[in-house]
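**User:** Here is a favour to ask of a fellow structure person. Please take any protein you like and set down a full record of it. No explanation is needed for now; the record alone will do.

**Assistant:**
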Amino acid sequence: MSEIIDLKRRSFLKGSAAAAAGAGLASTSAFALSAYEDAESAKEKKEKEIKNATYTPTFCGMCVNMCGFIARNVDGKITKLDPNPLFTKSRNFACARGNAGIAAAYDPDRLKGPMIRVGKRGEGKFKQVSWEEAYEFIRKKLSKILDEEKDNRSTIAFGAGAGAEEPMFATFKDGIGSNNFVDHFTTCFAPAFIANKLTYGSWGSADFEKTKYVLMLGANRTEAIVTPDTLDLFRKTHNRGTKIVYIDVRYTNTAAQADEFIPIKPGTDAALMLAMIHETINKGYHKTPYKAEYLSKYADGLAELEDYFTNGEGAKYTPEWAEKITEIPADTIRRLTKEFSDAAEKYKGAANCYRSRKSTWYFQDFEFRRAQAIFNALHGCVNRPGGVLLNRGLKAEKYEYEDFPIYDNAKPRIDLALLPKGEYPLINPGKGSWQIFRNTVLDINTKWKKGEKLPENAYPVRGMFIYRENPIQSVPGRELTEKMFDTMDLVVVIDILPNDTAMYADVILPDTVYLERTSPLKSFGTLREPMIGARWATSKPLYDTKPLYYIMKELSEKVEKDLAAITFKHTWDADELEVELPKDFNLAKYLTDDFEIDEDKLRADIKDEKLIKAILEWAGEDNLDISTFKLSLAYEKTPEEFNEEVMKEIYGEKAAHILKEYGVYWPGIEKAIEEGIIDEHLKVFRKDVPGKNDLIYELYKKYCTLPEDYCIVPKKGKFIKFALKNIAGQKFKNPITGETDVVTDMPKWRDSMFEEPKKGQVRLVIGRHGYFTQSSHPNNYLLLDLMNYNYIWINDELAKELGVKFKDEVELINRQGQKVRGKVYPTKRIRKDTIFVATGLGSQSKLFTLGYDNGVSQAQIAEDHVDPFIGASSMNETFVKIRKV
């Protein structure tokens, strides 16, 4: 790998010199064409390329939005990505990050083949090996660990990023039988998801296309995640009479595009929302005709909510009370509440207090998001056009397998098993918390390695498979994550690039970029136009890389017999079977490829008939049913076969053909194609189709055969729950005071869970940027050309006091002793007690040519805090001192 780096660094210089020399040669009179001839030659070449190219539909893999593309392949190389106009979810739109998918495919630092670590973890020293060598290394390590842990399958953990392939990775996890799985849930959107799910049964999505009033709290849509629904929000907004109010701790591009910007003190959003609910209740805004009818039909607990905000704890949450906490004037709070209320009543729920995507900010995030959900519901905006949609998609199967055996020796997930009583009452039982998982594993593994006695229910987590997730660079407390991996015996990373987490791997398996693979189809139901999308391979995989499907299938085939034998050995009951199993017996030796026992081979080695009978009995259908241990059965169908089968079974052969040819299906798309608005070769709008910009919104409405209100989920009864009695009374620990508190049925503000910066400190606020998906693209040269550094936003007055100016370097030191250096951007657009850093940069992987040590790593400086309800990251509860370097 070091050769790749050296070559890359030199090639930048050599390539630049060669290009300059070539340009000089072409400009001399002896060699240059005339300007006209040169242009004509280029034009003819381009037209020939376009004519002879192949065009394949896919959907983007650069972020979770997954917009539709048509990839142009010229002589085996992807040269252009065009938006897919029939992929109505993405509005014929391609953002900078999506277009930069080409750079991901042709990144010179891209992983080119399997590698095994030869140096210390984190050093970045690996040797290139064959796939067989890599699989064999994993097989031996995995078998040894599981045998030593007596078939506790949970000793192997799994982590994955979001994407269309995640079900295939989860299938492998289920096949292994582990209960330990973590993903980006608690570092991204857990508080908003759980709060909305508990209140009205769905995370929900904003219907920006139809909304008339939008209240956004810190949701920086024009910078942080520029997606098609961002276009819905800002395109023609004023023409349809929509008002956008943006509230944040800094003046962003979203603030500039909004009708009104209101600054707020960091960490006080919950207080604002509680005051707006108080104003609604006490002014009777929820009793207007439309809302009264809506609430009587769909809301449960309204009387309790009214009592809480008039006679109970909520009675004190007045606008004046909130003004002292948020620094937003009470009159402004009253006006915003009235404006929102009027819009919701007039347009029958077409208003939205947007819940945002990333919501792992503060200790009180869950209460804030719960109050948001109640506010939307109180004004009749849930499951309404222009309000909060409940995400109704089209029927489609997932790529999953349900016939794996139950592993009796697999222990419960480690973070929940050792969770202290009275803490984190709402932690997700399937995904846990990244930080709690990491800290627990680090603690237990350290004790285990020292030979100390482990607490009850504890066990070491000795291995981990990571698929397209970079926790070292995305989870707060980078050093702790590195130490956790250092305590493990087997770390396998499956990725495209040699990122920070890959530096701590024992084995790196190179995945293909999304343009080189076919993925299982996906049903999209997050906007008004539900559809099914498919990602088809647009080019052959480069280098010695493989799509995840083949990695999981081949790895399953490699390990399945050994793992079946381990379960057989450690579940053998000598008392029940009335015979001892020989210590050196290995069932794998006698399993055929069809997972049947070769009795002839068994009898040739064993002469004890009683033992033979017991072996066959224990492996039989009435006991272990050893045939179910063939993990690779889960991957019998390729993604291509799966997609075709699902579409034919549910929607018919023609629909399957359309999905294959155009990468998308929705009822009625057949007519849109038949009417000839799409170029059959290029798969985009024909050049002579008028009004393309308007057509992207009219296309689905014109041709789709679903009812116009399909996006509104049919509901019977009161699906909205204002009083969450099912969680009331559960205990949690205050993260600041350490005292025990209880969850209440109504949202509550706690002064004891809010901190101000002490003298010499500022609060660090962390946010996303639309060019970078968390920590996935720090080496992408096209994106770095747009944003090459994540400067530290600092108030200009504070910068003067510290004696720093633009691009000066400072050191940030948090309260836990972590330090990071970065360059500053002094500005009036942020509060004096707050600094801001965007995520995505600051990688410490030495195998990155462009991304290494470029920018500020949020994982390195964010303090290791989680909220006390869910265990989600509280990244903005970080306070730092600033030192000029």
Notes: The longest strand covers residues 819-827. Residues 2-27 form the longest helix (26 residues). Confidence is low (pLDDT under 50) at residues 1-33.
